[in-house]
Structure formats: structure tokens, C-alpha cells
Write a structure and sequence with these properties.
Blueprint lengths: L2 E4 L2 E4 L3 H14 L5 E6 L1 H9 L1 H9 L2 E4 L2 H9 L10 H15 L2 E6 L2 H14 L4 E6 L5 H14 L3 E5 L4 H8 L8 E4 L3 H6 L1
Parallel strand pairs: 3-4, 3-8, 5-6, 5-7, 7-8
Antiparallel strand pairs: 1-2
Helix pairs in contact: 1-5, 2-3
Bound molecules: uridine-5'-diphosphate.
The site of uridine-5'-diphosphate (UDP) has 14 residues, from helix 9.
């Protein structure tokens, strides 16, 4: 089996390396359809038990990873070993490294305005060849949302990083999947706070 089924969710048995490889080749293929990556943490796993809408968002994703040591441990007990935990933060750092070599463009959505600015500064310093096609803090109103989606559409990023917290980010990406004009989108929780220091 290539999958481990844990709490009703089918996790492919992929290492961080393989997951990054899959996402990288999707970006390089330059398809127009958005590829949604969901790093399934304990919050998402629990919410999926009672929220069938969220469950279908996770099931529809192009790639899901096991972002919880508990999920990995349970897979081992069941004899359907997941190789390792793959977090949104790890994925983000690896995508920035790859993007720095391949000159991908990124749009950063989420975190508070100061964190967004600081993360932007840290990322442009560490990954100077990454194209930052835009960013926006994550405390926008309903009224501002359509304009924000248009801004992302116009920025046309290879990678849309959504740091709104889980599962808000996953719902948001899914809601605007057809309008974002990004190659891949991934929710990364509080990663921008970590990068901002
Ligand atoms: N956040 C946001 N908008 C909101 C709520 C949260 O941009 O309306 C940001 C928050 O500033 C933080 C991230 O989302 O940067 C959530 O991080 P958290 O660690 O709570 O999420 P998790 O890692 O648990 O998904």
C-alpha cells in the first residue's frame, strides 16, 4: 500500500524530500490549475471527524502530508508506516531553497502586519533570488477579501503561502482555488512568526 489510512484520512507514504520533489515538479510543469498542499496537523485531523466539508477539502487536495508525530506513530502501530512527519514549516523552507535556485515567485498571505514585514525582510535577505510578487497580512475583513483575491491573481505567484492558521487557511485556499492564479498553495500555520523571529 502506498497510503496509510489514519482517522479516515489517506496519507501517502512520502518523506519530506519526496513531497518537495512532487511539489517542485508541479511548479516546473507550469500548469494553470492550482495544486493545493495540505499539511494535516492534529487540529485538521480532529476537525475532519465532524466537518465533512473540511474532509472533502482535504480529500480534494493535490498532496497531503502528515504534520503530526501522533499521526506518524499511529501509522507505525497499524503497520502502515509513514516515513516521517512533514510540517508546513519544513515544506516552506525547502520551497524557499528550491525557489531561490529556480527563481520562483512567492506571495505571502497571513500573519499580523509587523510579522509580515519582518518575515518579508528575512526571506529576501536569506533567499535573494526568490521573487516576492506580493504579500498581505492576515487580518483582512470580508469586504477586503475580493480585492485581495484580485491582487493575488494579478501577482500570479508560483507559490502562494497562506499563514492564516489551520484549518482557516485550507478553507480559504479551497474557496478561492479557481481565482488565485497560483501554481501551488499551501497553508503554513504560524511559520511566518517563526521566520520573523
Ligand atoms: N492569523 C492570521 N489571520 C487570522 C488568524 C491568524 O493571519 O485571522 C495568523 C497568525 O498571525 C499566525 C498564524 O495565522 O501567524 C496562525 O498561527 P498558529 O500557530 O495559530 O496556527 P497553526 O500553526 O496552529 O495552524
Amino acid at each position: 500500500e502506498n497510503y496509510a489510512k489514519i482517522m479516515g484520512i489517506h496519507f501517502p507514504k512520502l518523506t519530506l524530500d519526496r513531497s518537495v520533489g512532487i511539489v517542485s515538479s508541479i511548479i516546473e510543469q507550469k500548469k494553470t490549475e492550482l495544486f493545493h498542499v495540505v499539511t494535516v496537523n492534529p487540529e485538521i485531523t480532529m476537525a475532519c471527524q465532524t466537518d465533512s466539508r473540511l474532509r472533502s477539502i482535504v480529500e480534494e487536495a493535490g498532496l497531503i502530508t502528515a504534520d503530526g508525530i501522533g499521526i506518524v506513530m499511529v501509522s507505525r502501530l497499524k503497520g502502515s508506516n509513514l516515513p516521517e512527519r512533514v510540517t508546513g514549516y519544513d515544506m516552506l523552507l525547502r520551497l524557499l531553497e528550491a525557489g531561490n535556485q529556480k527563481k520562483w515567485s512567492f506571495y505571502f498571505l497571513g500573519a499580523d502586519p509587523v510579522t509580515s514585514e519582518k518575515a518579508y525582510e528575512a526571506i529576501s535577505k536569506t533567499y535573494p533570488n526568490v521573487l516576492i510578487s506580493g504579500r498581505h497580512h492576515g487580518f483582512f475583513t470580508q469586504d477586503e477579501e475580493a480585492g485581495l483575491v484580485e491582487e493575488i491573481h494579478a501577482a500570479k505567484p508560483d507559490v502562494l503561502i497562506v499563514a492564516l492558521g489551520a484549518p482557516y487557511a485550507e478553507r480559504w485556499i479551497h474557496k478561492y482555488k479557481l481565482k488565485l492564479n497560483a501554481r501551488i498553495a499551501i497553508g503554513v500555520g504560524g511559520s511566518l512568526d517563526v521566520i520573523a523571529g
